[in-house]
Design a protein that fits this description.
By secondary structure, the chain is mainly alpha-helical. The chain has helices at residues 21-32, 45-71, 78-95, 104-129, and strands at 10-11, 19-20. The protein has one domain (17-129). It is built from four helices and two strands; from the N terminus they run ββαααα. A hairpin with a 7-residue loop joins strand 1 (10-11) and strand 2 (19-20).
Length: 130
């Protein structure tokens, strides 16, 4: 049987199912950088809804992993403090509802995507420091 190697973008988070950070970042790029996907029209309502559900699910997978990793750091650690603050922000964004005042469903999806992107950064930083 041939051994396979996992890319650095796929992180093993201890639950048997790897976190696919590359896919998470691709989803973020679709929402935050429309130029990242060439020849694409603005997202439809259904596409925004689908991407929002994807980002929410990805956040729900990533938040506990970042939290566990951050809590292993020294209590006075700046990366620990920043990661835990980011987790709090992500959780509040998950509880928030879309508002026309702040861009409606598309604005809400972008805010969730920014939280996901930040958590990916924290997870990679904490994981590389261990």
């Amino acid at each position: 049987m041939k051994a396979t190697t996992r890319s650095a973008a796929v992180a093993d988070h201890g639950q048997g199912v790897p976190l696919d950070l590359a896919t998470m970042r691709e989803t973020v790029n679709i929402l935050l950088d429309p130029d990242a996907v060439p020849n694409v029209l603005p997202l439809s309502g259904a596409e925004i809804e689908t991407l929002t559900l994807a980002v929410r699910g990805q956040l729900e997978l990533l938040i506990p992993e970042v939290e566990v990793a951050a809590k292993k750091l020294d209590k006075e650690s700046i990366p620990r403090y920043c990661a835990l603050a980011c987790i709090g922000d992500a959780r509040s964004r998950l509880q928030a509802e879309p508002s026309r005042r702040y861009g409606g469903a598309a604005g809400h999806a972008r805010r969730l995507a920014r939280a996901l992107n930040a958590l990916c950064d924290h997870y990679e930083k904490i994981s590389s420091d261990r």
